[in-house]
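Appendix B.2, paired examples.
Example (i):
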Amino acid sequence: MSEGRWAAVRRWLAWIMLAGMLALAGCKVETFWSPDGKSIAYLADSRLRLYDVGAKQSKRLDTGPGQVISATWSPDGSRIAFYAATLGKEAGVSLRVIDPASGKVATLVLDLWPLPKEPPKELEGLSPAEALRDAQEDALGTFEYGATVAWSPDGKLLAYVGASASGGGIFLLTYPAQGIKSLAGPGPQIAPAWSPDGKRLAYLRPSSSGAEVAQPSQKASESAPEPDSVWLYDLGAGKSQKVCEVPGGSLAAGTRLQWSKDSRQIGLIAGASEESAIGCLVEARAGAAARAVTSKVTAMAAWSPGLEGVVYVGQPDDKGRAPVLYRAPGGAPKVLGRLDLPAEEKSGQAPQESEAMPFSLPEFSPDGGKVALRVGEKANLRVAVLLVK
């Protein structure tokens, strides 16, 4: 690989790490295994598709107007809940559910996140329509970071992210839609994740952003942004408690909180720097300390269902092929497979901030035996399924 091309690849990798709280498109979970491991729902060009693992075939699901943001399967595999965002005059973000077998779609919550309906006063050389779309896309980008939706293990509650007085807040929807309540505790709140026993909901309180540089007369505590922190909501007690701060200050872009099968630990991927990320474990109790147990992984990583190890997309080799690796705490990385970079990434052109990444975050199957990634874009898009050795 030429020096110029390698430099472009390095810029591409640094761009992944630098995303942090910016929530750039593509560096997020975009493949969602069905509970039985036979199907994968995934995002393709902001649409929802269904991949049959056995037949190795895909089909598009008709989810109605708008682009799909995130999705999750119901515990029995009969439904997929997802966010849908519509831009233009009828702009809005809604929570919907689809039955993949019948194709029936139902809207559960309307206008859960505000999108501008009028163009900004300062058009900056744009037409009113262009300025309005830019403003709507900016607001939608803010929503996308941490806007996961989580179905409780018994299938009776949906935890979703919506607008609140503190910016973003988590709400609990009784399914079918019978009532909504806001999560107790300080905000903003994002990235909900249910414990397997259904008694608690883990979520992230993101760091303060846009902090001004402190003046000499200001105290450090008045200017320093708070780091990301992990919180627990107890469903029975109806209250939240802080678990810990995220090592390094922030969760890696697009990743999520993951529970151990016994509901005692939470796994997370911390964005330690532009060059690396770390896999951390923390006990699911107030005041616990997060432990860094798997270092030298990339930000494109996820914990296995039992938190036995981390899978991640590594740095491309001199042929432009990116390895998918598995690493157990204290162990050496094992290569599960290698994926070709799309042609535009091999050309020496680093992606722009508005462009999607050529890979999605890897996602383990429910039994931990396989890993799926969405690879490529548009006509070259496919789902890659790799065995975990």
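Example (ii):
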Amino acid sequence: MRLFGLLPLVAIGCTALPPREAIENRGEEPVDSLTLAAESLARGEESAAAGHFESYVRKNPDQVMFRAHLADLLFKLHRIQDAKVHYERFIADAQEMTSAPKAHLVHCHTKLMEIAQLVDDPFGEVFHRGVGLILLTREEAVDDETREEMLCKAIKTLREAAEIRPSDPRVQVYLAEAYERAVNSRAAECCRTAASNFAIPGNLTPSEVLRAVRP
């Protein structure tokens, strides 16, 4: 299953590496890791570059866009499970951010959907497809007709995910948002209640915890 209406609207590919000057302004230790990564990429040594990026991200976990670049590189290298970990960490960190991290969320959910397809994970495929569509409905540039179509697709897809894992609180959180946007407050409240009931420490991000208790 492909992400309806999603892939044509996002740019798929590795995050662009910042200019060397921007890298060199980040302090002595980061210069080493990022410069080595850039030089490795220039030589076509992508595995070595991934190692340097991993070193940098481990020491600078707040640099979320570098984590996204690392995840893309790991995916390209077919290190699927490692890429999945970094995509998920990026999403958890970037959900309440603005600018580039916020704009990159759709890309990361798209890649997680692709990973789910590769490893035969039907739940992950429909869940990340549904969340990607929900994120697109938040975009101001989307016209009303397209937004309504994506919203209907998101609800249908997230309900498929809920059928596979009825007690997964994440599904209920995003279903609540979808129903709220569809002006179905009763269904939205039921989903928020279910999300709160099913949630256990650690299985929702801080942003998702807030969405589980309020519209």
